[in-house]
Design a protein that fits this description.
This protein is mostly helical. It has 14 helices and four strands. The protein binds tryptophanyl-5'AMP.
């Protein structure tokens, strides 16, 4: 019998997360998990090793627990196929990373946009940020994961993962399952394109937690009415036409995208609802209400989840993850002559 594909994702934990992280990766993961967890393995992990790259955050442990609570507050249903774990508690991730470092080339890591963005203009750049995608590839390949719900900014890393797996397989046989292509990922998530939620003040850019301006981003910890005000003051354009055109009208398109994702509606339906309308204020009002209601409900649910629930899930999840990951690592070690 053919094994159902494994679905896997991770989200770093340095601080509270943005609506971009939520809509780009977390919510799609929860929706896919709830739809497929009777047949697929669902791996949700905290890349805590990736989280110490930027700076070692004294709050890491508290943030880690909270980041897993986000999935539960977003409606993740726990079944025996749902596995929660910490990357650092499964040492096979680091072990495979080293082996894949011997497969990856400096040239291909140098070309990663995230590395270029984070290193540009700096005199000194840590090796961690350079090697980030190889650890990410290990996170995926250890579990034969096919679908990886992530935002569009991470697609390049998925492509790299496919390339490393292909290179390894070519030499040693079919050891790794290749994750689906970005196009297949998008189809599986039932979204039009890769999701990239935009900065509210500068919609040419993606919404990012590192942007200093508080009005540019909505954090899941924002007071709901304050978040609604940020939507009301979002940058739009002067074309006076509500339509989806990320190139010429990124601000308006971003609002349509947020409205669709928050209400679990096909983007096309939201676009049709607003087609022919010209009052940007009406659209902003509607999206502001959606954001406010979402945050009110989400924050209430989050406050009700006990730390103990998360630790219980981690305990069983980490036993599972170590078993699966060690099996794959063992195979890989045999291939390269370490066993
Ligand atoms: P991180 O923590 O930087 O981002 C978490 C997820 O949020 C998505 N994201 C966005 N999506 C849409 N619009 C935005 N404005 C936006 N900003 C962030 C990111 O694409 C990501 O999916 N490298 C991963 C963490 C990771 C991982 C993995 C994921 C490590 N290993 C293995 C999947 C599989 C990352 O970017 O985390």
């Amino acid at each position: 019998m053919k094994k159902s594909p494994t679905i896997l994702t991770g989200m770093r934990v340095n601080s509270v997360i943005t609506l971009g992280n939520f809509l780009g990766a977390l919510l799609p993961m929860v929706r896919l998990a709830n739809k497929h967890s009777d047949s697929s393995e669902i791996n949700i992990f905290v890349p805590d090793l990736h989280s110490i790259i930027d700076s070692v955050d004294g709050e890491l442990q508290a943030n880690l627990v909270r980041s897993l609570k986000y999935y539960l507050a977003a409606g993740l249903e726990i079944t025996p196929h749902v596995h929660l774990y910490r990357q650092s508690r499964v040492p096979a991730h680091s072990e495979l990373c080293w082996i894949l470092n011997c497969v990856a080339t400096m040239g291909e890591l140098n070309r990663m946009t995230q590395f270029k963005d984070k290193s540009s203009g700096k005199d000194s750049v840590g090796v961690g940020i350079f090697d980030y995608p190889v650890l990410m590839a290990s996170d995926i390949l250890l579990y034969d994961a096919t679908y990886i719900p992530v935002g569009e900014d991470q697609f390049q890393h998925i492509e790299l993962t496919r390339r490393l797996a292909e290179r390894f397989n070519k030499k040693y046989g079919d050891i790794f399952v290749l994750p689906a292509t970005p196009k297949e990922q998008v189809e599986f998530m039932s979204v039009n394109d890769g999701i990239r939620i935009r900065d509210l003040q500068n919609p040419e850019k993606k919404m990012s937690k590192s942007t200093p301006s508080p009005n540019s981003k909505i954090m899941l910890s924002d007071e709901p009415s304050a978040a609604a005000r940020k939507i009301m003051s979002a940058t739009t354009d002067s074309l006076g036409k509500i339509q989806y055109d990320m190139f010429n009208q990124p601000g308006i398109s971003n609002l349509l995208q947020i409205e669709a994702l928050l209400n679990d509606l096909p983007l096309q339906d939201v676009i049709s609802t607003w087609a022919g309308e010209t009052h940007y204020g009406d659209l902003k009002q509607k999206v502001a209400e959606s954001v406010q209601t979402f945050l009110e409900v989400f924050q209430e649910k989050l406050a009700d989840i006990d730390d103990g629930v998360v630790f219980d899930l981690l305990q069983t999840g980490e036993v599972y993850a170590n078993t699966v990951a060690n099996q794959k690592l063992h195979e890989v070690q045999k291939c390269v002559g370490l066993r």
